[in-house]
Design goal:
The chain is of the alpha/beta class. It has a single domain, classed as Nucleotidyltransferase, domain 5, CATH 3.30.420.130. The protein is 26% helix and 24% strand. It has three helices and five strands. The chain has a five-stranded mixed β-sheet, covered by helices on one side. A hairpin with a 5-residue loop joins β2 and β3. Pfam families: Nitro_FeMo-Co. It comes from Flavobacterium cellulosilyticum. InterPro entries: Di-Nase_FeMo-co_biosynth, DiNase_FeMo-co_biosyn_sf.
Length: 105
């Protein structure tokens, strides 16, 4: 299973980014083989449509779950259609490495 987490930076010490479509980075984590990857958000500067473009990006990478501080209004129905689970984590101090620990337990 692959999980995407919105991140403020490109290290495990970075915190979760509250913005979904315009976060700084995406952290992709494969729970089965523990593979990790940080990807700069290609939609960060989009004036509009960043959320749907981000959903399509994740769908193309076979992401199963997305964890972010919040999601835009249009995103839930898109994720539901693609069967991608949306997890809202309202803790801006939570570090990426702490979220990985939660996923592994």
């Amino acid at each position: 299973m692959k999980v995407a987490i919105t991140s403020t930076g490109n290290s495990l010490e970075s915190t979760i980014d509250p913005r979904f479509g315009q976060c700084a980075y995406f952290f992709i984590y494969d729970i089965q083989n523990k593979a990790m990857e940080f990807i700069p958000n290609p939609n960060i500067d989009a004036d509009q449509g960043a959320g749907p473009a981000t959903v399509q990006f994740f769908a193309s990478r076979n992401i199963n779950k997305i964890i972010s501080g919040e999601f835009g209004m249009k995103i839930k129905s898109l994720l539901d259609c693609l069967r991608i689970q949306m997890i809202v984590l309202k803790n801006p101090e939570k570090k990426i490495k702490e979220i990985i620990d939660m996923l592994n337990h």
